[in-house]
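We emphasize that the prediction below concerns an isolated chain of 236 residues; any contacts that depend on oligomerization or on bound cofactors are therefore not represented. The input was used exactly as deposited, without trimming of termini.
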Amino acid sequence: MERLQKVIAQSGISSRRKAEELIKSGRVFVNGKCVQELGTKVSKKDKIEVDGKILNKEKKVYYLLNKPRGVLTTTSDDKNRKTVKDLIECEERIYPVGRLDYDTTGVLLLTNDGEFANILMHPSHEIPKVYLAKIKGLITKESIHALKKGVFIGNSMVYPDRVKIKKQDVKTQTSFVEVTIHEGKNHEVKELFKAQGYDVIKLTREQYAFFTTSGLKSGEYRKLTPKEVSKVYSLK
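Result of the prediction step, given as a token string:
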């Protein structure tokens, strides 16, 4: 027997928090009866319906993709552009954990396990994400210091966990800067540099939690090991 919200999240249709909202709003039925009490336990034999659709108990799958440039981080596109889902041969309905911009490359996880995704994405877990940014111009130590102190983006302050100059090229007037963040605002890394007057030419996510693209060429993917999945759950 498992809690209803956990079973819904594991089916891949939502995070556990969203599943709780679905239950409380009367959108979940178990064996034909509306259930609104959180903590209700169900078994594999129970028929669960969400918004009138029977919950499919899909096999949970987990993938790590080295996302290439020019690919959308979504499962479908009305303009028929290539998406990350097109790069992975998989029968299950998977979706990206978080997102990477169209022109950003690197570590991207995809799964149908809502709880797994929520652990990695929820701000309270402060999961680190490491990016390598190639920027236009030779960034100064003063700018690095300013970034570390925090930058106002949108309606809130953003504080990078770490900012480090990796390389500078005087000839091409470019800098390579490593940035570690744990938040997930749209275009966050690009906005950080923009606030200091620098444009990002190229951006790669080199690490997400403990995952890297080691051994994977651009566009290649692999399944996660059971040990890696368990390690993510231990981050909760």
